[in-house]
């Protein structure tokens, strides 16, 4: 049931109940493992003596560095500007001195352009104030520009530049603005804590987002395992905002934009299309809070909330960590076991395993999950596909992962893409999760998609000659 | 080219925890009551037949893997299932040397030539059974009454027949209820059928134990319950219609459900994941098809029993069903086929 704006007398169960019966097809239920951190308030993380900042923390062109080696910078100061529309700037996460400008390691295993900052030890680390973006007078374009200038990207993990996503294309309207508080990845409690602790920022963020997109209605989507957050937010909805909170049953991968739209609105985003094709825009709840926190001060992102958890760490928790903090430093601070053997950034379903502890926290890091030697799941034996159909029953896109897996092995890439919709796969991992034969389906699909994209690029290149 | 990347730890980093060998092992557990009941009702001969079938399947699997230079796949338990299933479909006094041969054919022809587990088009045990039916039509239709006195210590001459000799049929013959119906129009009591106080193959007689095994697997999500439900419903409905048309000529639907190898086939053979369709809709079509063929063969065909052929035909149809029935992909209008 949806009920708009009117405040005061409404009781919380009334607002948060989702009586609409749609949900996306299939999906899986991995063990949630959230209880160890979901009650722990967000705490400020210590400032690392050295900050290593990659210039590519987002999807799009790397930021362009505008500072010099040896220069002293203040927390919040602009260090690198956006290199074009599909790019965002980078701000100083700490006050300190630029030690060098050189290549830095990133999670993909490659090296990219970056900045090393020596943190001033005795600095109070106050943040530089910028030019505020006024909610009352700013135009939609100015708000989008302000979001870009703040260096904001999707904090749910995708790190897609938020201003690009919010730009409503000519001829389209944004009917529904969906605030994504689903956080369906096991272990992670970042968004959960943000919703409990930063409600004010979230609603200010929503005001900016409504102005920027022209949305008529706002839905905050939350999964049933965060009922406390849903109750909390629905009590605080400002009377003048068309916001509803909807609680949906827990199911992975509900946090994926397309799945969430289907769960909340009962519509499917066309294959190859975007949410705006069904008049919707989806923004992560932590991103929304960040907008609400930074834009009134004209500041840029310096830090973000990260859940650090897993059997391999002692001081599990939700921490506010400066971007660029080296992973090694983070693990030392939280008392990671000596014999850690698996660390991944993001959740266990879609997160990326870390091969080098010298990489640093980036804007898209939503969680760090650590496993010690004694508690990593042992590598399972791989059997042939027995056509059990579990993957077919799990895929939220209704693909046939069994068939795709067999085709990938025989390198039938064209058939995979043309006949079996490989390009619609968004690598959610549900199929591999359920496969009793432990076939690394997602990995096959990732590689196959890469090969197909490369081939297509070559084809276009040839056609253009 | 993927062989190297297989070992990299990639997302997802967690697994549900069900594994293929575990599923297979539980199928074996689910069949154990049938094996025990077979021994209780048919005595030591049935035990020898089943043990021989399992031994021969497992040895063949092991030998073929070794011979082709792969590591042995015996530990995935699938050869054990094939052996037990084969044993359960044979008459209780089937000669052991023929049983052994059946195991070899099941694994070698039914599975290995297709590329091993997962690539076999047909249920291997049924391939072995079909071979035996063609090669030894007399021995495979020589039935034996159940609950005979002395069944636990007297080994039938037929069972112990010397390899490549024609077995001597022991004096007593016990027609199965289906044969009796087919050729003499005698139907058996449903309760006797359900509980297995009848003659038949070693493992097909007790419908109740078969159903319990099936429920065990279905609850553990290790078997697609839609398959037996679709098969049995189809058989029940079709034979019900025929029964209404003329109950003198056609057997009752209860009799159809509980007689012969239908229950065993529907629950433990048609449900072989490899040979059945991959989508929920697909398996319903597959099950309905098998049910239809069973009724057609039993009532109009020349054989008393049609379950084996019905399932093999169903297996053959599976790739086509999977090709035609595809779920609509998210965000697309219609399935492209
Ligand atoms: S990873 Fe791709 S194929 Fe597998 S379940 Fe997710 S969307 Fe489907
Ligand atoms: S889950 Fe694994 S074994 Fe089952 S059909 Fe899919 S790929 Fe094959």
Give an overview of the whole structure:
The complex is a heterodimer of chains A (465) and B (337). Chain A is α/β, with parallel strands linked by helices. Chain A is built from 14 helices and 17 strands. Chain A has helices at residues 12-16, 140-149, 162-166, 190-197, 199-213, 227-236, 257-265, 285-294, 327-333, 390-394, 401-409, 413-418, 430-434, 441-464; strands spanning 42-44, 50-54, 64-65, 72-73, 78-81, 90-91, 96-105, 111-119, 176-181, 217-223, 243-248, 280-284, 303-309, 317-322, 340-345, 352-353, 367-372. The longest helix of chain A is centred in the C-terminal third of the chain and has 24 residues, at 441-464. Mean pLDDT of chain A is 89; it is low at 1-17. Chain B has a domain at 20-174. In chain B, helix 5 crosses helix 13. The relative contact order of chain B is 0.11. Classes of the chains: A alpha/beta (465), B mainly alpha (337). Chains A and B meet through strand 16, helix 10, helix 11, helix 13 and helix 14 of A and helix 1 of B.
CATH architecture of the largest domain in chain A: 3-Layer(aba) Sandwich
The kinds of small molecule bound in this structure are: iron/sulfur cluster
Low-pLDDT parts of chain B are 1-8
Give the percentage of residues in beta strands of chain B: under 5%
Order of helices and strands of chain B: HHHHHHHHHHHHH
Secondary structural class of chain A? alpha/beta
């Amino acid at each position: 049931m949806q009920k708009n704006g009117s405040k005061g007398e409404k009781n919380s169960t009334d607002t948060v109940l989702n009586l609409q019966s749609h949900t996306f097809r299939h999906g899986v239920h991995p063990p949630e493992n959230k209880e160890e951190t979901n009650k722990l308030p967000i705490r400020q993380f210590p400032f690392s003596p050295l900050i290593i900042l990659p210039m590519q923390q987002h999807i799009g062109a790397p930021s362009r560095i505008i500072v010099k080696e040896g220069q002293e910078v203040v927390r919040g100061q602009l260090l690198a500007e956006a290199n074009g529309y599909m790019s965002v700037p980078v701000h100083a996460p700490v006050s300190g001195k630029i030690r060098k400008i050189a290549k830095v390691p990133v999670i993909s295993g490659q090296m990219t352009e970056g900045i090393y900052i020596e943190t001033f030890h005795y600095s109070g680390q106050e943040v530089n104030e910028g030019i505020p973006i006024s909610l009352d007078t700013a135009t939609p374009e100015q708000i989008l520009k302000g979001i870009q200038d703040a260096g904001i990207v999707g904090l749910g993990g995708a790190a897609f530049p938020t201003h690009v996503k919010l730009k409503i294309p000519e001829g389209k309207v944004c009917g529904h603005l969906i605030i994504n508080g689903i956080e369906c990845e096991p272990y992670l409690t970042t968004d959960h804590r943000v919703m409990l602790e930063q409600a004010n920022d979230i609603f200010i963020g929503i005001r900016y987002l409504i102005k920027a997109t022209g949305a008529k209605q706002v839905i905050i989507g939350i999964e049933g395992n965060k009922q406390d957050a849903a109750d909390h937010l629905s009590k605080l909805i400002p009377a003048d905002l068309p916001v509803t909170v909807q609680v949906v049953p827990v199911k992975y991968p509900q946090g994926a934009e397309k799945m969430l739209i289907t769960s909340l609105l009962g519509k499917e985003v066309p294959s190859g299309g975007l949410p705006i094709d069904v008049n919707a825009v989806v923004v992560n709840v932590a991103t929304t809070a960040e907008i609400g926190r930074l834009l009134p001060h004209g500041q840029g992102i310096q830090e973000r909330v990260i859940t650090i958890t897993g059997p391999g760490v002692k001081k599990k928790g939700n921490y506010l960590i400066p971007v660029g903090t080296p992973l090694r430093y983070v693990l030392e601070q939280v008392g990671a076991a000596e014999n850690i053997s698996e660390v991944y950034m993001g959740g266990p379903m879609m997160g990326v395993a870390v091969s080098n502890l010298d990489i640093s926290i980036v804007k898209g890091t939503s969680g760090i999950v650590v496993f010690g030697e004694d508690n990593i799941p042992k590598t399972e034996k791989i059997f042939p596909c027995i056509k059990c159909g579990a993957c077919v029953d799990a895929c939220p896109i209704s693909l046939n992962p069994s068939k795709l897996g067999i085709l990938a092995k025989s390198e039938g890439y064209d058939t995979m893409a043309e006949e079996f919709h490989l390009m619609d796969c968004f690598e959610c991992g549900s199929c591999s999760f359920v496969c009793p034969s432990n076939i690394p389906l997602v990995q096959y699909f990732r590689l196959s998609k890469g090969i197909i994209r490369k081939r297509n690029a070559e084809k276009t290149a040839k056609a253009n000659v | 080219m993927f062989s190297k990347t297989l070992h990299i730890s990639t997302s997802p980093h967690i697994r549900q925890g069900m594994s293929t060998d575990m599923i297979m092992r539980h199928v074996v557990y689910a069949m154990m009551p049938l094996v025990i009941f077979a021994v209780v009702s048919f005595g030591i001969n049935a035990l020898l037949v089943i043990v021989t079938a399992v031994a021969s399947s497992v040895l063949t699997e092991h030998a073929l893997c070794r011979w082709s230079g792969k590591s042995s796949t015996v530990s995935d338990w699938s050869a054990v299932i094939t052996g037990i299933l084969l044993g359960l479909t044979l008459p209780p006094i089937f000669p052991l040397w023929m049983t052994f041969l059946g195991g070899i054919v099941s694994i070698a022809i039914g599975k290995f030539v297709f590329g091993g587990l997962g690539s076999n088009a047909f249920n291997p045990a049924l391939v072995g059974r079909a071979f035996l039916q063609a090669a030894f039509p007399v021995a495979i239709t020589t039935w034996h009454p159940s609950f005979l006195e002395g069944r636990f210590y007297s080994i039938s001459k037929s069972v112990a027949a010397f390899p490549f000799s024609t077995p001597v049929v022991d004096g007593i013959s016990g027609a199965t209820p289906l044969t009796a119906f087919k050729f003499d129009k005698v139907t058996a009591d449903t309760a006797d059928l359900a509980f297995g106080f009848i003659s038949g193959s070693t493992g097909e007689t007790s419908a109740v134990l078969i159903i319990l095994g099936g429920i065990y697997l279905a609850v553990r999500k290790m078997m697609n319950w839609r398959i037996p439900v679709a098969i049995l419903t189809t058989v029940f409905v079709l034979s019900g219609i025929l029964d209404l048309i003329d109950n003198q000529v056609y057997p009752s639907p209860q009799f159809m459900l509980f007689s012969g190898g239908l229950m065993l086939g529907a629950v433990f053979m048609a449900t072989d994941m490899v040979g059945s369709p991959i989508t929920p809709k697909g398996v319903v079509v597959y099950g309905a098809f098998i049910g239809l063929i069973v009724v057609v063969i039993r009532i109009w065909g020349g054989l008393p029993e049609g379950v084996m052929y019905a399932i093999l035909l169903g297996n053959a149809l599976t790739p086509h069903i999977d090709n035609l029935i595809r779920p609509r992909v998210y965000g697309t209008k219609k399935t492209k086929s």
